[in-house]
Write a structure and sequence with these properties.
Layout: E1 2-3, E2 24-25, E3 36-38, E4 70-76, E5 82-85, E6 94-97, H1 116-119, E7 125-127, E8 134-137, E9 142-147, E10 150-157, E11 171-177, E12 181-186, E13 188-193, E14 198-199, E15 204-206, E16 209-215, E17 219-223, E18 228-233
Parallel strand pairs: 4-18
Antiparallel strand pairs: 1-7, 2-9, 3-7, 4-9, 5-8, 6-12, 8-15, 10-11, 12-17, 13-16, 14-15
Amino acid sequence: MMMKTMMKLASGLGLLMAVGCNGSVETAPSGAGGSSTATTGATTGTMTGGTTGSGGACGGFEDATGAAPVTVRFVNKTGLPVYLPGNCQGVDYLLNPTNGSDGATYSYDSSCLQTCADLQTNPPFVCGLCAPTSYLLDVGATREVTWNGTGLKYEVPMPSTCWAQPQNNGTCPQIVAAPAANYAIQGIGFSSCGPGCTCDEKGICFGYPEGGKAYAELVKFNFPAQNVVEVVFNVCAFGCPGGSD
């Protein structure tokens, strides 16, 4: 159990930056994340001071909307099944501006997210752990997820008077619009799913991915001009004889 406002997502690969919400959306198995319990010890939903909205000390913390959605299409051309790692909400993958980090995470999980805007009117809650999840990308198959053109900044300072319930750290996450720029995206998969892993008819698997790693080709695209991006696991994604992994 952990406070969502302090939570930073970690990919099952250990390669994703702190991520979380609504970066890419795909139906997760029932029981994965989403359950929450409000904390106690303070008056729920009562502002201690300040003002919400666009003005005053508590303005400017609204969650942004992306300029346009982007379809991210994973394609398996390896000749072998590929298991994509999942977070509480959907497929994990790497997504970053090509000109370097700007302090936001662009592939994140929103399944148990409370942003600064939320915390101005609600106390923080805690969430249960997600069920171990991976996504089967079968031989020759494709799987699509949607990036909504936003990023997440995790430690945005917000004045103490703006919180519904006082906080010691004084920072909270905020959803920001992704700037128009060039981005790079890559998928990483595995050769199998853990012991006892089962997959349903939609390829949602109840178990962590494991085994050999498969690296999709790094793809660069211009946002928001390009609204479909193909991320391909080619024949040597798992490594080819005589080549490097």
